[in-house]
Amino acid sequence: MNFALLSPWWLLLLLIVPVLVVIEARRGGKWHVAIPTVVHLRGLKATWRGTARKALPALRACGLALIVVAIARPIGDRARAPVDGQGIDIALVVDVSGSMKAEDLAPGKNRLEVVKDVVAQFVEKRRGDRMGLVAFARYPITVCPLTLDSATVAKFVKGLSPAELQAEDGTAIGAGLAHAVKRLKRSKAKSRIVVLLTDGANNVEDVTPEEASAIAAKVGVRVYTVLAGRESGGRSGYRPDGDAMSAPLIEIARETGGRFYRAEDATALADIYREIDKLEKSRLEEKRYESFSERFRPFAGAGILLLLLAAISDHTWLRRLP
Prior knowledge:
This protein is of the alpha/beta class. Helix content is 41%, strand content 19%. Helix 3 (56-71) runs antiparallel to helix 10 (296-315), helix 4 (111-125) runs antiparallel to helix 5 (150-158) and helix 6 (173-184) runs parallel beside helix 7.
């Protein structure tokens, strides 16, 4: 709970209230020019009505003061939140093919386990950006659509697992990228990026990396590509051809205005995502909206009630006879 005034300058009207009280007191208890019609009677004994009439100026002053406070717009329960779609839209594309089981980035962990830790940390640091997650092996799939809820995206990242069935295995880099670009195509964010991580060369020709990068460049999506894994292959025995894998990823990054990175251990991979985080933060122009609850009604209601009470009293039981 908190309290503030949206238009505090209206409080300057409170300076007029004492002036009106003085004027009323000098003119016989009403805020208008009194024209006497009879000679004032003297020697009359004071009554409770006469005493009560003396409170009418204070009653009116309090009513006016409360209305002035209402005009100044008191508010409470302020909350700030990012405007949907005003930051950067980021599609995280992660290879979950069988080769991601290789243990060469960190002792005791396969490639995908290391990648999940690094990508989840990247997600949790972002604020004001929409992020989504696309996983691919033989086929791409949207694991999490674009959302401002970074905790949910991180949860989905940590839940990724490598493809187990041979029919689902493969490395469809082109299809994975095209799928992510399709998700970003209708975005109205000023900056739209894809961070694509893989450990192998494209071996599914439904959509080639060249075709996918051309689509990304056409719609203005910037792509950062990351090649993870050692050429030795670690315990898995997987020995990729480094040049054959790097060339398409380098070309994707070049054509879309992004960058290509190579990570051979967990430390290098973490450094890469930190660098991407810094590069994109420099372009972020985050806007926020503020929500609050209006508190003027009690003040306005009480002020009007006091003025009505004073007016009714002045013309009924506290009426002043000429």
